[in-house]
Amino acid sequence: MTDSNTESLISLREVSKVFKTDKGDVTALENVSLDIARGEIFGIIGMSGAGKSTLVRTMNYLEVPTGGEVKVLGKILGSLSRKELNDLRHKTAMIFQHFNLLMQKTVIDNVCFPLIISGVSGSEARKLAMELLGLVGLADRSGAYPAQLSGGQKQRVAIARALATNPEILLCDEATSALDPQSTSAVLDILREINKTMGITIVVITHQMSVVKEICTRVAIMDHGRIMETGPVLEVFMKPCTSVGRHIIFDGFSLPPLDTDWRIRVVIEGDRALKPAIASLIQEVGPVSILYADVQNTVVGSAGQVILELPEDEDLRKAVFGYLRAQGHYFEVKGGHVYSD
Amino acid sequence: MYTLTDQILRGIWETVYMTLGATFFGYVLGMPLGFVLTMCHKKGLRPHPVIYRIVDIVTNIGRSLPFVILMVLVIPVTVFIMGKSYGSTAAIVPLVLSAAPFIARLVESSLNEVDRGVIEAAESMGASLWQIMYRVMLVESRTSLITGATIALSTILGYSAMAGAIGGGGLGAIAIQYGYQRYDVKIMWICVILLIVLVQIFQVVGMYIARKLDRRIV
Ligand SMILES: Nc1ncnc2c1ncn2[C@@H]1O[C@H](COP(=O)(O)OP(=O)(O)OP(=O)(O)O)[C@@H](O)[C@H]1O
Ligand SMILES: [Mg+2]
Hints:
A: alpha/beta, Rossmann fold, 11 helices, B: mainly alpha
């Protein structure tokens, strides 16, 4: 799995987690295998209860799996002593949906916290903490208490705190789910920035498609404790290959459903190719109406998609299909049947 | 002989002395027990059903023993520790033993109020158990702990008045001596009012400190 330039920082093998509850066993993870490489921003998306949080929490052993193996930064977590695990955790920071700041401590003391517990002296910790607060744009609020900050500001403090021990991995569990759109994009900008400048590998758990679209390079779709599909963001977004994936993507982009035999969804690679491709389809084959069209821009490239309503004419449909195939476009019809080369 | 005023002043001092002394040592004993209860609970950081059960039962027994009975029961212990069974200092022993289980429960419930997410964040940063207890739980629950301490003080002050009945001194002893043995109801009422005033002072000061130290209020 590992070669010279794609070193796997996080590697899960057949990881399972069964919660024993009063009402019986709950299987939160079922044989999940996953590799995340250095420098990636890896997204994990899925419905509520899919097991996303449980999965990301196995990556720092906040959740101890009931089966399988978790390897992080070359260490098998299950084989570490408590002390060794705590040392490793300095390198795998985490941020949370509800920020989880110390409410009785000032902003700067919150950022100092991980440094103090790892033995850095007070004055040195404060110096570093001020730098980090500058990085997240909150240097002027260092003396404030979390209760005096907005949600977006709290999450930025949490990011500064997470960066304090100079981690290699940042785990984000629904880090923007409690934020308004402006704060969300401010937080995402910071994440993108630290990935680029510090080379921190980021794992992003979310149920918001837009978050994945804006920062992730690869994504996995989870459902019922399993990973249904995984791949580069654009690939999974445009060409989901499972019904769960299709459902999440269609819902996430509010696409009109392919619920008649006369509707098709066509994917056209590249961001400028969409209009000419549809124009020439109409010119060459005949009149089709456009129900929906968009271009998805992700960090790894762009692609357009269009949902066409064909006239109820079998011959014309055949002609459209023939044309699309000849052009090498990917398209899908009702029931998820896909045509591609 | 002492004048009555001297006696009452001395009574106030003895009451305050017993109360603060017993509260202090009550916390020395009860605080660790409270931590054990929180940590060893099945939802705690180090679940341990056996230890939890033992401490749970011991504190429950301690709390359900009426103070006057406990006071008599532990006389041998008091004599062993203090060398005598009467006087304010000796009274601190039964006061501590009866307050500690109660304090353990107060501490347990304060610690359980700490947001699980904050503890988890500390764990995710690699904090050790001690660091979580000392730097997270103690800090985050301080308002609640102080509120609890004012409750503990008031309760122990009430117990100390009972301790007066068997030679512990303090306002309780004076109240009983004059009110019960000499039918001097006036002195008894003075003592009762002084006890109420002391409770009020503890309450007001405790609540003030708790509020002053709470940073969740903007
Ligand atoms: N501590 C626990 N005890 C029992 N069951 C749990 C526990 N934690 C999670 N579960 C169960 O495991 C499953 C997966 O939960 P998880 O929190 O990982 O889902 P999620 O994908 O993060 O959902 P959400 O989007 O709502 O956060 C759910 O059915 C949940 O009820
Ligand atoms: Mg979750």
